[in-house]
Amino acid sequence: WKDGLGFCALIHRHRPELIDYGKLRKDDPMTNLNTAFDVAEKYLDIPKMLDAEDIISTLRPDEKAVMTYVSCYYHAFSGKQKAETAANRICKVLAVNQENEQLMEHYEKLASDLLEWIRRTIPWLENRMPENTMQAMQQKLEDFRDYRRLHKPPKVQEKCQMEINFNTLQTKLRLSNRPAFMPSEGKMVSDVNNAWGNLEGAEKGYEEWLLNEIRRLERLDHLAEKFRQKAAIHEAWTEGKEDLLQKRDYETASLSEIKALLKKHEAFESDLAAHQDRVEQIAAIAQELNELDYYDSPSVNARCQRICDQWDALGAMSMKRAEALQRTEKLLETIDQLYLEFAKRAAPFNNWMEGAMEDLQDTFIVHTIEEIQGLSTAHEQFKATLPEADKERLAILGIHNEIAKIVQTYHVNMAGTNPYTTINPQEINAKWDKVRQLVPQRDQALIEEHARQQNNERLRRQFATQANIIGPWIQTKMEEIGRISIEMHGTLEDQLTHLRQYEKSIVNYKPKIDQLEGDHQLIQEALIFDNKHTNYTMEHIRVGWEQLLTTIARTINEIENQILTRDAKGISQEQLNEFRASFNHFDRDHSGTLGAEEFKACLISLGFDIGNDAQKRTGIMDADDFKTCLISMGYNLGENEFSRIMSIVDPNRMGIVTFQAFIDFMSRETADTDTADQVLASFKVLAGDKVQYCRALQENTSCY
């Protein structure tokens, strides 16, 4: 009672028109209870004695309340049942007959419809036309599933209902003692069952065919997709490969680039061999697709054929490129060897030509004819090497011509120049032509220089001839004048006369000196700096000539001063001769001068008392020496007096006193001979320089 279906069943049993029992649901008790209570109240006059919510909310409804309410149903239906029983009995027979007729008609209709449906369905199930795509087959499978899910179940129910109706009809007829029902021909239950068996056989075959076709199409789709992927990968890999293999980049490549291209091509060939398996797989997949009757086999076969053709073409082009690269490598190696040989021979030859040009253009500076003859000899030796050098040049050019011949014969497109050298044949020929041009120019320059050196040699000989005469003549005259001044032949006046005659003869020799000066000027203009034919230079001659003039003039002056000294001091000729004899005796080298020891010995021989002193004899006295000298001679010197004297003998305040200043000072202080001798002796002791003393003595004879 709790779900309300019991109440509704009571009502439906007695008044089925009031409630559609088939639409009630067990899981909706509230609707069931309210429906029963409302219908009972409205059509059966049974009041609502129960509440639907109370019944649902309680674990077990109140039994007494339910029984009381149900009893109301009994009283409502029992009175009506008696009245209807008679009518029902009357109508029952009619109803049974009518129902039997309806069952017969319904069976006929169901059997006809079912057989017709089977007739239409079996051809559809027996249709084995394969589809080309998995999508179409999937649609067929979906249609078949719809058939089993939507179309066949109602037919199964109809067949079941038909069999139920047939059995029910036969039972009713048998119970009513009526003859059994015989369906129309071909519509027996057995006929329907046979047709249904055929339907299920066709259905099973169709299902198996669908599954097999789907598996086949799956396999085909898988193979087709695999074919497409492998073909796409292969086509992507081969894209641009034909252009790469057809490139003629090796025609302009260097040897190193060719070797790199060969390495690259070897790698490509390895890659090509590795792709051989993929091509074979593609062909095998295409073959399998053909065997499985793939719908798009023509396009697969066409694509596979293109791949195979392209693969064969790639193999042929790869082999052709490999041969071209190897051939080019050999040619370039040959050319490279020739380049290297060219460079090895061209470099030294080029250096030789540059050195030759430098030597031929070099400005030579020679000073003798021997030097120019040496240059000429070397130049002739150089010219003798020119034929051999020309052979070397032709050999080097022959190497280049061989390279050009290879390039022209094998159509090698050289991309660059010789990598081993920057020297080219044009440069070699240009330098060789330059050398050939410079050789005659050098010949002419050597000829001109040889003529100039011959002229210079003539000037040297001309100058040497005169210089070798004038030089000894000056030397001879110097010696003769020295002998005149040293030797004591005749009086001083005779010596003076003789010297003046010498002076006149020397002056008359001046034109020869002037002529030699002219020759020397020519030598200078010719830039001649040495002369092997003479040891005399113009400077030597000039110095000798000036010394000669100075010596003769000084000797004449000395004789004149001796004459003045002799006359002023009353020195006799015998004294002078004694002085000269002593001087000449100690002048052992006949130089006309005395050394320190010679002068000391000379003074001692003349009676001077020369003591040893440790002073350094410089020929000059400093202020202290001079002061000591004056004190030794009896001067009583104070500081002011000494300063006055120093200002006379040393006006430049250098702190020294020369012999000339000393003699001049003493000549003003005293003219007494004894005092002069004392002064001289003091000077000799304190100054001590014999050479300076002798020179001072010679130059200050009058003071002495």
Labels describing this entry:
704 residues; two-stranded antiparallel ribbon
User: Order of strands in the sheet with the most strands?
Assistant: 1-2
Please compute the radius of gyration using only Cα atoms. 80 Å
**Relative strand content:** under 5%
**What is the chain-wise order of helices and strands?**
HHHHHHHHHHHHHHHHHEHHEHHH
Average pLDDT over all residues: 79
Termini separation (Å)? 192 Å
Count of helical segments? 22
Instruction: Look at the helices and sheets and give the structural class.
Output: mainly alpha
Main sheet, how many strands, which sense, barrel? 2 strands, antiparallel
Shape: elongated
- In helices, the fraction of residues equals over 70%
The parts where pLDDT drops under 50 for at least 5 residues are 608-619, 670-676, 689-704
DSSP, total strands:
2
Describe what this molecule looks like in 3D:
- This protein has 22 helices and two strands.
- It has helices at 5-14, 29-43, 52-57, 63-126, 134-175, 189-238, 241-246, 255-274, 276-291, 297-361, 369-409, 425-486, 492-508, 510-525, 538-569, 573-586, 596-605, 623-632, 639-649, 659-669, 673-686, 690-699, and strands spanning 621-622, 656-657.
- A two-stranded antiparallel sheet has the order 1-2.
- Helix 8 runs antiparallel to helix 10 (297-361).
- The longest helix has 65 residues, at 297-361.
